[in-house]
Amino acid sequence: MDMKKIKGTIVLLCALWFVFAASSCQLLPGKTVVEEKDAPKVLLPFSGAVNGKMKWGFMDGKGKRVIDLQYEAVEFFSEELARVKLGDNKCECWGFIDETGKMVIQPQFNEPGSSDIDFLMNPERFGFSDGVAVAKLKEGGKQVVIDKTGQILFTAPEGYTLYNKFSEGLVKFSTSPGGYYSPYGFMDKTGKVVLDPIHSNAGSFHDGLASVELPTFPTTYGFIDKTGKKVIEGFDQVFDFSEGLAAVKKGDKWGFIDKNGQTIIEPQYYEVGSFSDGWSWIRAEAFEHKYFYIDKTGKSALPLPEKFVLSLSDFSEGLTWLDNDVIDKTGKVIGTMPNLPIANREAIRKFKFKDGVSIMTDGKFAFYLNKEGKEIKQQ
Nearest 10 degrees: CA dihedral of 104, 105, 107, 108? Predict the structure, then answer.
């Protein structure tokens, strides 16, 4: 056999192996290596001390460290990107990383909320949705809307304030700094005002409709479509649509309507949630803490134990929180919350299960619990 051909083949194979290795692995900041094909399904922020300073990184749903402690502050991932804050002397700015830890949008933004830990009180408030995110430039302080490459799609006009995330292609805005005592309208992804700011209160668009406070006396609530047309009206309070139904209040009783404004479940409850996983929680009696879950026909799906219920939440992934217990749709207790070092128990918020993880926060710290109610700790 020709030795020159053999040597040439070996050189070619080595070169191909090098290219493959370089493309399948990436060196992360903090000297963490993650194969892109093994990127975890869920990434959770965690904090710890580095040289006497508090830093943030990310772990997976089993507590395995994925991205090292290196950021001054972080948000939860949304649409595979997370906003992170660098704290060097040049720019204490926020940028965006992907699930491998690669900085895909360079640091250039201010914090999205009023503080670095606002994300703890509402993990879904900020970040990307519909492929775009609202951000505020560090230099000049102007609000902008960016895509996943960091390209600025538009800059908010002077005096306009954009709110949180896009939903169904539209974002809520007001024409008053901070939005106080100013009506709300909606813009699209090009910055075009689609709906003029005329509503004193407004939700986000879900199922093609947005809940709004109507310009009536006395005040009433209803829903508008994306043309601004009033399609449902005449209620004392409303929630956004969820799974095709919206909670509406008449007098002191709550019921549910569909997108056509038809009453599906007559107003009869004193408290309700929104439908999630096909069920909504309700409180039937005015002066009793007697709760149960109903299905979309109003039929009782799961009566809860006769006890003083302090907190409960929406079902998701077949599970929910009932006080300190995780229960399934048969009412069976699957797990119990451990005794955690919570600073303010009155401020505790438990969020729906997503990818097998529930987030619990007291506004200062975040804890992660799995479907057995056990804390997920960084290993």
Answer: 170
What is d(CA 266, CA 255) in angstroms, rounded to the nearest whole number? 5
CA dihedral 238, 240, 241, 245 (to 10 degrees): -30
Secondary structure of residue 191 in the 3-state scheme = coil
Q: What is the pTM (predicted TM-score) of this model?
A: 0.81
Whether 75 and 126 have beta carbons less than 8 Å apart is answered as yes
CB atoms closer than 10 angstroms to residue 46: 21
Residue 69, token pair as written in the block: 């402690």
| Per-residue tens of pLDDT for the chain, all 379 residues | 444 443 343 333 333 333 333 333 332 333 343 444 444 478 999 989 999 998 999 999 999 999 999 999 898 999 999 999 987 657 789 999 999 999 999 999 987 765 555 566 566 777 899 999 999 999 888 999 999 999 999 999 988 999 879 999 999 999 876 545 679 999 999 999 999 999 989 999 999 999 999 988 899 999 999 999 999 999 999 999 999 999 999 999 999 999 999 999 999 999 999 999 999 999 988 777 778 999 999 999 998 876 667 778 899 999 999 888 899 999 999 988 877 766 666 667 888 898 899 988 777 777 888 988 888 988 8
